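User: Can you predict the 3D structure for this chain?
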Amino acid sequence: MKRIWSITLVLAMALLLLAGCSGEKQPTATATLDPATKIVVSVRTLEKELYHFELARAEGDTALSVLQRGAKDANIAVALTGSDDMAYVSGIGGLKEKDQGDKSGWVFRVNEQFGMTSAGATVLKDGDKVEFLYSLDWGADWGMSY
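Assistant: Here is the predicted structure, written as structure tokens:
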């Protein structure tokens, strides 16, 4: 039984890896939503958008909670360091911090403003646009300054 489980797990991981490596944009999690109240979440590298979700905002939603909800609906892994309002998003869809150098990792912004708190502490409002951006230079390549 363990052998079957191991083989199934390896095959599932291989399929996820192949889906993440394809040149096509991943499916979006969208429904007919009121534009005034929906939250748009984009996950991007410098080269392209990897994932796009449009979600109905729930009371108390944070940048982290909408990322997790959209990713769960699309079966995309999200890795965290810490939790709740102290969480750092360390990986999305298999792309993790330091995968592309010591300065690489995830930063986020809401309505083109970089978060100065964690994604779990950034509470959203109706109509917000959330972007998780993979940086190669601690956010400087996206215009982030400290």
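The CA atoms of residues 102 and 134 lie 13 Å apart. Residues 2-21 form the longest helix (20 residues).
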